[in-house]
Amino acid sequence: MLTWKDIIRFSTSGNPEPDKRVEKTEDQWRDHLTPEQYRITRLKGTEHPHSGALCGIYEAGKYACVCCDTELFDSGIKFESGTGWPSFTQPIKDNAIKYKKDTTYGMNRVEVMCNTCDAHLGHVFPDGPAPSGLRYCVNSESIKLLKEAGYEN
Asked: What is the CATH architecture of 4-147?
């Protein structure tokens, strides 16, 4: 289980190696994504709180990167944080997420990205529930729900 100490270490000393890499040109990303997905994932944008389609969905499945289909989070660790963005306590694998120190807008935060394609997902904070204490605050436009068998996708 990852802890805040692990997150800080990754963001300052290097991230775990991803299982694979997906790299495309900016034109290829634009062709693959909606304008809003492109703005958020490739230009490090954000969606307005409580506006994302995945905020209130708690169906069984895996959440994958909208850019490269890498599985990032399991629905079993999603929780209602009250922040207005989908929130998770752990990634599906330690090397699924890439961490980067983010001091934009005068804040000290840790940005989370897909470790496979560098898509901006959101940020991680040390104010989540036990036992990890982590809250991955993720834009709905950055991820898609891959529903478990028995559900239509």
From this structure: Beta Complex (2.170)
